[in-house]
Specification:
Blueprint lengths: L8 H14 L11 H14 L2 H11 L9 H14 L3 H14 L6 H15 L8 H16 L6 H28 L3 H14 L6 H17 L3 H21 L6 H21 L1
Length: 271
Amino acid sequence: MRNLKPVPSLLLTLTLAVLLSACAGSGRVRYDTPQEAYDKGLAEYEAGDFITATEYLQGVFDFGRTHQWAADAQLLLARTYRENEEFLLAANEYTRFMQIYRSDPRVADAEYELAMTYYDRSPNYRLDQTDTERAIVQFQLFIERYGTSPLVEEAQARITELRSKLARKQIHTAQLYERREYYNAAAVSYEAAFDRFYDTEYADDALVGAMNAYYEYAVLSIRARQKERLEKAEENYERLIQIFPDSPLIKEAETVYLAIQAMLEDVEARS
């Protein structure tokens, strides 16, 4: 076996020192100061190269998190991830900014943008709506904490939009039950949509849907249970005409209501 001579400790130390000093920042990004790392990160962000921008901005923290460039880099890092559609990473960095730099005047903006990361992730109404729910919660927290912010009106509009998506999701679920002739489940689901999302554009759809489902449920029921189910259908009609007298669904509802009344008369005549 060949004998290997040990490298003198002084030589090894000098070699490591040269390697470390020659490459501040790993990989393809180089910087000597936190300001240089931040400035280069900002330039790449503005140029649309978000991957390189994140490398520079992360490099700012090689010098700690208490120097004058740290807060700027933290917020810009979150925004860079969001621009690159890495929304969960963005959410983590916004949260870190709010936790570490609590006295920074941009915390309110960061909290709004945190809500927007969940808004950006909110999917088509047919899919799981966990991120939609999270976005609503974050927008509500923003409104509670920063009631005088000029962004409050926009946050409220986002909540309205997201609640409408959740209502549509609930209506869609009820319709699936209805297509499979699970009329009781459909009726309950329609009523849940109205109870929770009464202030959305789908509220009158929910009431008409519940009417139809209870009527169809009654048709398939034994005689002893028909009356109570027809009466529930009738109750939803009454709510519709009282709350939404100008709904474009009124004519459709009236047709169903006439069928409900005719069946009720028949059931009462036979009882």
